[in-house]
Structure formats: structure tokens, C-alpha cells
């Protein structure tokens, strides 16, 4: 089978893209995908061909998101799975008991080797997401989101070498803050840093910017800066 390595070992990569009459940030997603494929000694995809096939799947489906997965053994296989994403107003988040290791290279790739994330997501129960820390106690990311927090008008987000995926929307938020002249610090933060924040929000290509209303027993009542950023990025 052409993608037996993908089935046996999760040897594949994927991108999930929001569709709103067009595939949002398609070029950014394809750039990350192809850079990641090269890191895994896999062949880059033909972006024009991927775009054409993705639209052929999306337009008759009526769905607003698509997952594009790439597997390779002797031949390259690309699969397309459409889905509907329903947006919430805010998230309730807990701290995960699972530690991420900052040196794990898969955390910086959209790998199809994703079973541990799926199992953790299934166990969330009354929560929407879970925040992780690495072996050094540094804040990393959610199961499927990047995280930002705001304190005294300054935005903070973990550095990539904490062991996180450099998300497409994370990149856009950082670019927007810098463009607006709003201070953004990218670094190494612990549990106390985020618990003392004024606002917390999470990002990915589908949810875009999602305010965190509750972090375990703590409730965030303010989201002034988060709302301003959402308005700026609409």
C-alpha cells in the first residue's frame, strides 16, 4: 500500500484549513507543509494541484474546513477530509497532567502521529482544551491550539523551543501585534505567569482567536485586549 508507513507509524503530515469562499491562508499552510515534508525526507506537494483538489472536495460538500493529509512510502498519497467547524464564544480550559518534552521534534510538525492528542481530547469532559507544560515547567500549548496571555497591556506567548507547533494563526497574531506597535514577548513562562494574567486566549486556523473564560477554578472577566485584537484581525 502506498502509505503503509503512514498507517504503521503515523508517518505523514496534515494541514487543516478554514474555508470561507476561499481557503484562508492557503499559501502559509502549504509553505509550512512543504517545509515539514522536506524535514521528513518526503516529497513536497504541488500546491496548485492540492488547491484544485481541495476545492473539488469542499464546494459540493457545503463544509467550512478541510484536512489535507500527506503520506508517502514508494508513492505519495494525499487525502482530503471535509468537516464543519462550529465556533464557540469562549473556552473553559484545564491544566494537563501530561508533560511535553521540549526536544521532541514532532511537536513542531503537524504530524499524523496524533493518537495521544486524540485520547487526551476525548478525556476533556467539561473542558474545551488542556494546557501543557514541558519537562522544565515552561508553558507550551494546548492539545490543538497555541496560547497567549495578556498582563498589564503586554501580550505573552511561549517560544517555539518550549516544544510547540508554530501555528499559522499564532504567526498572524504576532505579526499583527508588531504592526500595531503593541508589545509582545515570546519566551518562557510558568503556571504562575498565566494564572496571574488579566486575559488568556487560544489560537488555531479554525477557532482563530478564542477567549478563555475559565482556567480550572479561575475565571477571567476581562477580555478588552482580546476583543480589540479580534476586531483588528477580522
Describe this structure as you would to a colleague.
- The protein is an alpha/beta fold.
- The protein has 2 domains: 4-83, 2-Layer Sandwich (D-amino Acid Aminotransferase, Chain A, domain 1); 91-233, Alpha-Beta Barrel (D-amino Acid Aminotransferase, Chain A, domain 2), CATH 3.20.10.
- It has 7 helices and 11 strands.
- The chain has helices at 4-9, 26-39, 47-61, 115-122, 168-180, 191-195, 224-233, and strands spanning 12-18, 65-72, 76-83, 91-100, 129-134, 146-151, 154-158, 184-187, 199-204, 208-215, 218-219.
- Strands 4, 5, 6, 7, 8, 9, 10 and 11 form an 8-stranded mixed sheet that branches.
Task: Walk me through the topology.
Layout: H1 4-9, E1 12-18, H2 26-39, H3 47-61, E2 65-72, E3 76-83, E4 91-100, H4 115-122, E5 129-134, E6 146-151, E7 154-158, H5 168-180, E8 184-187, H6 191-195, E9 199-204, E10 208-215, E11 218-219, H7 224-233
Parallel strand pairs: 4-5, 4-10, 7-8
Antiparallel strand pairs: 1-2, 2-3, 6-7, 6-9, 9-10, 10-11
